[in-house]
């Protein structure tokens, strides 16, 4: 949006154009589309030959990197296999103020069925945040239990 050539274009239209271009690129990468298929699709969208050639040239330059990126994403969500936690107690801040704030360091061990294990997910939270997380997990478990009984 900071580009001076784009200042006269409605930001909503720019956002839609960006989303359309990103979708086109991702779908072409997913389908491993060749340049003739991409050109045909863009011609159907009424793009002129010059823009189609420019798009195809840029796509071809970045095709390998796009396929590697898409391959690293995977197809299924992460699965939590284990959780560990520890209590952390902060006594002073770096400004030497006494704080006495307990917090929990939580580590989720996760794996993806597509590619095996992933790096663990770690976060820090207060007692209230941890209680809120546990409550939401219990609600989700109850909802799942009700859904399977129907």
Automatic annotation (TrEMBL):
Which InterPro entries does the record cross-reference, listed alphabetically?
COMM (IPR017920), COMMD3 (IPR037355)
The COMM domain sits at 79-148
Query: Short name of one Pfam family for this protein?
Result: COMM_domain
Q: Which GO terms describe its biological process?
A: sodium ion transport
Q: Which residues form a coiled coil?
A: none
- PANTHER family, alphabetically? COMM DOMAIN-CONTAINING PROTEIN 3
Identify its protein family.
Answer: Belongs to the COMM domain-containing protein 3 family.
This chain's protein is named COMM domain-containing protein 3
Which gene does this sequence derive from? Commd3
